[in-house]
Amino acid sequence: MKNAAWVNVIEDDRRIRIETAELEATVPKRDPKRWMTGIEKGSFVDKRTGFSEIGDGLMVVDWLMEAGSDESYSGSAIADDGHGLGRYRWYENESNPDSREYAILAHGSSHRKRMIEGPQLCHRMKPVQPEVTRGRDFIAVRTRNRFEYAAPGRNTGSQWTQLIVFPRGERFFVLMDRIESVNDSPEMFLRNDTPGCVRHTRGDTFSEVYLSYLSGPNGLRIPSSEFFDPFPPDRKFGYRRDLNKTPGHFIRAYRLRDPETGGDGPWLGGLTLDPSVVYEAWCSQRPGDIIVMILEMHGLPVKAGDTFSAAHIVGYFDTIEEMHSVYDRHKGHRTAAVDSSGWSLG
Question: What angle do CA 126, 195, 180 make, to 5 degrees?
């Protein structure tokens, strides 16, 4: 592919690699280093500071889900790939207390949910062929996939679209996830990681977490020491739309730390541009030195044929104030569109 002067695009049968003066990033097509969706693990690099993402990738997507219990079918409904459709079946598995304890630590126990359609796209999606759109001052990658199986009594084939836009001269990308549903649901949502998980050993890779929507107008800054021991998502640092006031900004970020010197780097932040789209979000420490930053978007009634979406900005920032400034310039949007003439938020 011929490259414009400000961006270098390298594409092969496994991935699309994008390099600008500010960033490096890879979008996988098959055989990813970790997950199939979003930005590939370890590939998102800030050229200014040399720091990179420290989790398992960015903006990784899971299932289509809804509130409710899957107890009636969790032990019998098995997909073609052998994956059980009952995501929370561990809760009923009293014969395996270790598995049940892990499930509660990973997902909590106060808000039961079930899958509508699968597979879990992050690691069970088949190879894809993303489309690259080049403009004068941006490069964009669009990936589509249809869910392949559904819970009993539900339809299969809802389409997920992820659009990632890299604007020229920025240390961030713009991303939209959109669902075109083939099912009805009283409370459908899409689950993803925003911006992504954090891998660490007692805080060696990050110094603090920032959540703009907790603890008043200035948000909450959480030292890394709060994440030394596992805790479930419904114990602390959680957000639910039905229990919390909708904030003005919805920003989730962690400050990178050099594991060798201990010196602070930039913030890696995920800015969800319309706070009202967030159904539930948590920032919890799972067993195994991983902080999970799940965000569930939409969580409202859906009819077959409806679409819903969320738009985010994800990237590197030197200060919390810079994140809020960028947020103010782009806030209120849920969609993104692109063609050769330009890109826009809507």
Answer: 50
